[in-house]
């Protein structure tokens, strides 16, 4: 992490540290026991040359990112309504359920696939350039989809082109909020990420109403116009702080793959997305499968997004106070648990409403916390590169998750049972990755604590220091799997 105070490393280097007797050993153990919080320890390396203002124009950037999320991920969240409509009608003759599943999957996977290019262009020409490219492609996609008459045209418009536009807008904006905040970083990021939930709520209801009243084609056109206006204004107003913090902005820094903690971060994202996409796109159609109407299905999808809009700022607040990795891991596990114990048994409208609201608050925990958690793992300077790699890795699960869910449907009975079990287990697998990442973080804090111990005066034996430090640290690294602490 690169956002906490930096301790005097040079002071420790200029002094030969050694533990010579039992009293100094006790001092070391006491220091390790006083586990510093993530705000106190600089991990992994050096002090940032710039201190985020923790407010000011940063709140304007939060508002802009909120609006961009509402008109990218929020709009895309309404695809569950479109999917239910496609499956219930013969809009595109010859298209199968699997075809429609891939349309939704492509929109997200393409957004992630273009992330290295978006990062590269942002480094060359600035953040605003990347955002404006996204505005162009997303508008083109929605207007183009309004004229689609065959499934391949829908693939190219609502799938590929929309995904490219969403990717440029997302990559251009996702790293900006953490640059403006320190103590309030997770809270601010939660507010910004909440835009996707609010947008999903509004556009799930609006899309269904427009499809029924003014046709599918005009629904696309209205959405395209709205997205253009809002995203264009936000692209003009938003500002990054790349120069102040010296962000690396490498599109693909392969050296990160050598770090076990980064691989655990990727595992958390990979398994989370396998579950998240199923929830996002399948709930409206699941409502139809248990006998509810299309309007009730759109309400279920809207309530899922309402839960995201309300829950993400709360997740951000508690992440700052209880620990970012702690909250991310716990809520990921909780999401998997309620999928297994509530969703499977949700057979009535009322229970499904309750589940949609509840699961919405935690389903998108990854999107709400990936920025702050990523900063904890790799530091602010490497965050753009780490996020760029993360988006590419997530292409696979986001492309095939909904297709897997539709293929897991049974012919009779609870047709979504296998998909529900699959979703719950994926979230639990993601939580396990976060559990091991937490153990690593605690180990890093303990190593930093040992470096703070000043040796008593006397003769120096560096061999004893290394041996003693190793004996003390290794057991505590294992204990990180069950040690209580704020990380």
Describe the fold and architecture.
- The chain contains 22 helices and no strands.
- The protein is mostly helical.
- Helix 14 packs antiparallel against helix 18.
- The chain is globular, with a radius of gyration of 24 Å.
- It starts with 8 loop residues before the first helix and ends in an 8-residue tail after the last helix.
List its traits.
487 residues; mainly alpha; 0% strand; globular; disordered N terminus
Total helices: the number is 22
In angstroms, what is the radius of gyration? 24 Å
Number of strands: 0
Kindly state the mean pLDDT as a whole number?
81
**Low-confidence sequence ranges:** 1-48, 460-473
Shape: globular
The first-to-last residue Cα distance is 11 Å
Q: Major beta sheet, specifics?
A: none
**Structural class determined from secondary elements:** mainly alpha
Strand content: under 5%
Secondary-structure element order, N to C? HHHHHHHHHHHHHHHHHHHHHH
Helix content: over 70%
